[in-house]
Design brief:
The protein is an alpha/beta fold. Helix content is 53%, strand content 15%. The protein folds into 2 domains: 222 residues, Alpha-Beta Complex (Spore Coat Polysaccharide Biosynthesis Protein SpsA, Chain A); 74 residues. The chain is elongated, with a radius of gyration of 26 Å.
Length: 303
């Protein structure tokens, strides 16, 4: 196989696992006769991860090491790795040894060799407490984006062109699959074994659940309405305006036509109706402004 492989390996406080995972990656390269390199990103580790990475670099010509002075998160670590990856296929693996590179690299590459643009690992035998949250997240992603993937936050292999078109921001590593799927890339999932940690601690926290929900809404908006913002703002503003108009019409009909109530008793409802109508008009106006911004940047890009 003449394809050049770049393995991106983010590491934060993984001094007990880093040397093992690098050894298993190199073993996979030897067994499969692969040509490639390993890109280690030390994401602000407070232990000896950075020192171990530099030591591995001196012993292996195919290793590149980059250091973040402070912890910036998995997405930024991936961006650093992707920007220095020169392989035709880029593989993301964790440095915690919960994935075995000797098993998983051939599985991911087999999917790429079938003609797919993105190979996604799906954990088998997983026994972590966050499994339920992961399943819920994957289900919501399916509802919002239509992506049929059981495990969207695990190991992946990409063709180089996929990475070049992914807009990654903080914590958006969770949405690589929906974004790639939306851009028309072919995605396939493959089952991989999951192993318990022997060293280090998981970086998962409850806070990530709330961040994930917010980011999910942002990504959905970006993919669905970025090019046509009026679809979102127009529908939302029109709905709110209609509710306000309906409230005021019911007040007018009941007070003047049917003489059922005294209008003075229903001034709060009239104020609510007027406020909703004004709010609806303002939201629709945001849609017009959004359309003008999109058109401006589209024309600028064409020029």
């Amino acid at each position: 196989m003449n394809t050049l492989i770049s393995v991106v390996l983010p590491a934060c406080n993984e001094e007990g696992n880093l040397e093992k995972v690098v050894g298993r990656i190199n073993e996979s390269f030897r067994q499969e006769s692969l040509k490639g390199n390993i890109i280690i990103i030390n994401d602000g580790s407070s232990d000896k991860t950075g020192e171990i990475a530099e030591s591995l670099k001196r012993k292996n010509e195919n290793i590149k090491v980059f250091h973040h002075r402070k912890r910036t998160g998995l997405t930024n670590a991936l961006v650093t790795g992707f920007s220095h990856a020169d392989g035709d296929v880029i593989i993301f693996l964790p440095s915690d040894m919960q994935s075995d590179p000797v098993e998983d690299i051939p599985k991911l590459l087999s999917v790429i060799n079938e003609g797919y643009d993105l190979a996604v690992g799906s954990r088998v035998g997983r026994k972590e407490f966050k499994v339920l949250a992961s399943r819920l997240y994957n289900f919501v992603c399916y509802l919002l984006f239509g992506v049929k993937a059981k495990d969207q936050n695990w190991i992946k292999a990409f063709r180089k062109e996929v990475i070049d078109e992914l807009p990654l921001r903080a914590n958006w590593h969770r949405y690589i699959i929906p974004i790639a799927y939306h851009e028309g890339f072919k995605v396939k999932e493959v089952e991989t074994n999951w192993y318990e940690r022997n060293s280090g601690k998981s970086k998962f926290g409850v806070r990530r659940l709330f961040e994930g929900i917010i980011d999910l809404v942002v990504v959905k908006f970006r993919l669905s309405f970025m090019k046509k913002p009026m679809y979102f703002f127009g529908a939302t503003g029109g709905t709110i305006f209609s509710f306000g108009f309906l409230i005021n019409m019911l007040q007018v009909i009941s007070d003047y036509m049917l003489s059922v109530y005294d209008i003075k008793e229903h001034i709060p409802m009239l104020i609510l109706g007027v406020a909703l109508m004004i709010l609806g008009v303002q939201i629709i106006s945001l849609g017009f402004l959004g359309e003008m911004v999109v058109e401006y940047f589209s024309e600028k890009k064409e020029k």
